[in-house]
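Review box. Two proteins, two foldings.
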Amino acid sequence: MPQHSSKIQESLLFTPDLLRCLIYENVLSIVVNQFLPTESLAHIQSRLLNAKSSEKDYNGGAPINRIGRPWFTSKDGADQEKDYFDQSKVFHEYMEDICQPYQTPIDRVIRCLDHLWPGGAKIGKIEGQTMCAGLIRDITKGKSLPWHVDANRFGPDGKRGTNLDRANAILFGNVYIVTDGVGGRLQCRDQRPNPLAYQKVNNLGYGSNDISMEPDVDHLPLVGSLVMGHADKWHRVLASQGRRITSSFFVAVYDESKPLEIYS
């Protein structure tokens, strides 16, 4: 049976009701434990622990080794946007090779969401070009991600003249592939920053260590689990004692007759 609290709902089954609880803000976060099957998880772990990735330093946060490019890195010009879409195809092919003969974590996410949501689910597209979805993030041992938000229509990453501007909600999601089982806690707060606060934080870099607030949700993600929350509400990741590797993504939510769009 799912575990209930005022802000988080935890279950072994990913159900339509669980997804709706999050989308319609009855809860701040949902957790699906044992989301990745044990056999495929062990295989993907062994491949990703030795995979090559590029490091990106954020001014306010932690070094993140990544496989795949996030959408926000394409905002500075046409060349960056072209590179994003070029790398998206390379990323998806690379992950299929890493995970075979099993499906990739993001393919499992999309398959589940496609069955749970009336309008289905698909990888997002911008003007017919397929976005990157499920990029791999490897947060360095002992590092953390400070309080931040990933989506806010008032911020520099907000309206960009794409179909994402019409989303009613943007969710974040992480499939946990490697954790130390002790640190790397995910904390969420049931609060959206005002426009000026959002711009200030994002102009400084990836979040800010100067923000002081108490979390409404404090969760220790377990390996193999899926955790989702609201991308435009405050959240942070505390330091872990070992590596933390996730397949990370966003979900653009429109109305129930339209497909969920998954991207990174």
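Next protein.
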Amino acid sequence: MVVCEKNIRETQREPLYPLVTNTLTHNSIYRFIGGQDQEPNPGNAITVGVDSQTVTYQGQPFYGGEGLLELRHPSLTAASALVLVALLRQAVEVFSWHHKSSSARVRRTRIMVPVIPDTAGGVVVDWGTLHQIGCVLLDTVGERIGDWVNKP
């Protein structure tokens, strides 16, 4: 395996980036492409396909196809994104193909997330708890996969 990875790195002259589209498979990655005239979009974003209502998390830099909304927050982590993607998938599935997931519709969509009081007397998203929930889910899946792989 190490030899294969070394050969790939030696023959690859430029980095390849995912082209994220409305596709329903492969985490919305249509294919991998080389650098373009514009810099790729920074990773750590949740993407929503306008036409297909696909919701995925992109952890690495990527190029976005047409009809793709990007949701970002400085406190977003891969673990918290796991939770938010699941919630957003449920929320946008009510949009029919006819109405699509416009940015205005996504912005108006309300989902239940943990909150904490802020200094102004309101509430803000509790990003720490979202991250912890995602970590628990990842750990649980990892344990179950490990149990399954290590079955005698």
